[in-house]
Structure formats: structure tokens, C-alpha cells
Write a structure and sequence with these properties.
Blueprint: E1 7-11, H1 15-28, E2 38-43, H2 45-55, E3 62-66, H3 82-88, E4 90-94, E5 97-103, E6 108-113, E7 116-121, E8 127-133, E9 136-144, E10 146-150, H4 158-161, E11 173-179, E12 190-193, E13 198-203, E14 210-214, E15 217-219, E16 222-229, E17 235-239, H5 245-252
Parallel strand pairs: 1-2, 2-3, 3-17
Antiparallel strand pairs: 4-17, 5-6, 5-16, 7-10, 7-14, 8-9, 8-13, 10-11, 11-12, 13-16, 14-15
Subcellular location: Cytoplasm
Cofactor: a divalent metal cation
EC number: 2.7.1.23
């Protein structure tokens, strides 16, 4: 990164984020993402995920400032001293999950997920799902509302709400978490090595249809979903030292 970094400011459509965007561009100038040294995302966690999906392939670090409802992946919004904050920021490197979903129609869809990939029943009928890990069947039939695989960064979000574990950043693990499981009644999921290939096979998909969502990308009527950590894609988020992502994830485990 150059001594005075070129910043690409990106903002959610909310009035607060758009006002901040205009002020910051007036002060620091405007650069396109592919010409910038660092991306600055203004919004909430949803907008941060959009930014990573749209521009993660550029390999540019992303510094987020919270101007939205949820800001776990963001720093506090303070427009003053931005260059100094970016220079002092600590990096957090994240690898997304790669998902390949096959629908009843035979179409295959690939997508990335920085938080989680979740399968959910589409009707009142409970989903029946088989779970294979690295080609070996571990759960013959999970009867549930759904099931998900979450990254450490995403483990404090939907995964934690479904009573899944919080995973330390850099632990090289992923969480496999059922959503409202009925059978096996006592199974509460597993913590897996990050390089584990997880395959879900939907049993009786016509009577019990299932959809899959990778972050916010949904595919309906799936029959098989394969998930693995990406070997090629990695993104870098920048955080203020006093409140970095690793500390946030640790602190979440002591909230009562």
C-alpha cells in the first residue's frame, strides 16, 4: 500500500451512508475499486458481505465503518483521522466457503459464502438430509428444519443463533450445525477441519423440497449441495487495534 493510500469508498443506499460517502469523497477523493489500494465500505454487515462478493477477487484490503443495523464486521464510524486509522489497522484474513448446488432440474450453481451456507425446508414438511464428510456418510438421515456450515467469521451470526459453536478466527475450522433437529434428537452438530468436504443429499426432494442460501444467494429445490473452504480466494479485512475481529469473536463467548 502506498504511503497515502488511494481509497475506493463504497456505500449502502441508506441516507446516512450516502451522506458519509459524499463527505469522505470530498476530503479524500474518489477511486475505482480496481485502481485503489484499499476499499472503504460504509454500511452494515450485509453491505460488507456485498462488497466482499463484488470486489473480493481484486485482493484489496477492506476497511469497513458501521452505518447500518449490524456491524460485527465493521469499525465504528468516525470520519476524522481515517488515513491514520487505516495505517494502524490490523488485518484479518478470511477464506470463504465454496458451494456447488445441484437443483432438481439438473442445473448446477456455484457460489461463495463468507458467513455460512444454510439449507432450509421450503414447506411445512421437515427436511430429510444425508450428510457425507470427505465421501463418508456420517448422518444417514437428519430430520430438521435445516442445516448449515459456517466459517469462523460467520459463526457468531446465524450459526450461533441456531446454538452452533463460536469458532476462533484462524482456528482452521468450520461449524456444521443443524437447525431445529428432530432426529437424531441428541445430535447438535460438529466442529470440522476447514479442508473437510461437506456434502448434503436431500432425501425425498419432491415431497420435502429444500433451498440453499450462500450468504444472500438462494437456490431453490436443491437435491445435492457440496461445500468446501476455498483454496484460491482470500480476503483481508482491516480493524482498529482496540477492537479487532479476533477480540470480538472471543468476547462473544462471554456475553451472558
Amino acid at each position: 500500500m502506498s504511503q497515502t493510500p488511494r481509497i475506493a469508498f463504497l456505500a449502502s443506499p441508506t441516507p446516512e451512508a450516502q451522506e458519509a460517502l459524499a463527505d469522505l469523497v470530498r476530503e479524500h477523493g474518489a477511486h475505482e475499486p480496481d485502481q485503489a489500494d484499499v476499499l472503504c465500505a460504509l454500511g452494515g454487515d450485509g453491505f460488507m458481505l456485498q462488497t466482499l462478493h463484488r470486489h473480493g477477487g481484486l485482493g484489496k484490503p477492506v476497511y469497513g465503518m458501521k452505518l447500518g443495523t449490524v456491524g460485527f464486521l465493521m469499525n465504528q464510524f468516525r470520519p476524522e483521522g481515517l488515513l491514520e486509522r487505516i495505517a494502524a489497522a490490523e488485518p484479518a484474513k478470511l477464506r470463504p466457503l465454496e458451494m456447488l448446488a445441484q437443483a432438481e432440474s439438473g442445473a448446477s450453481t456455484a457460489s461463495l459464502a463468507y458467513n455460512e451456507v444454510s439449507l432450509l425446508r421450503q414447506t411445512r414438511q421437515a427436511a430429510h438430509i444425508r450428510i457425507d464428510l470427505n465421501g463418508q456418510t456420517r448422518v444417514d438421515e437428519l430430520i430438521c428444519d435445516g442445516v448449515m456450515v459456517a466459517t469462523p467469521a460467520g459463526s457468531t451470526a446465524y450459526n450461533f443463533s441456531a446454538h452452533g459453536p463460536i469458532l476462533p478466527l484462524g482456528s482452521n475450522t468450520i461449524a456444521l450445525t443443524p437447525i431445529a433437529p428432530f432426529r437424531p434428537r441428541r445430535w447438535r452438530g460438529a466442529i470440522l477441519k476447514a479442508d473437510t468436504e461437506v456434502r448434503f443429499r436431500v432425501l425425498d426432494p419432491y415431497k420435502r423440497p429444500v433451498s440453499v442460501t450462500a450468504d444472500s444467494h438462494e437456490i431453490r429445490d436443491v437435491v445435492e449441495v457440496t461445500i468446501r473452504e476455498s483454496r484460491d480466494r482470500m480476503v483481508t479485512l482491516l480493524f482498529d487495534p482496540e477492537h479487532n475481529l479476533e477480540e470480538r469473536i472471543l468476547s462473544e463467548q462471554f456475553v451472558v
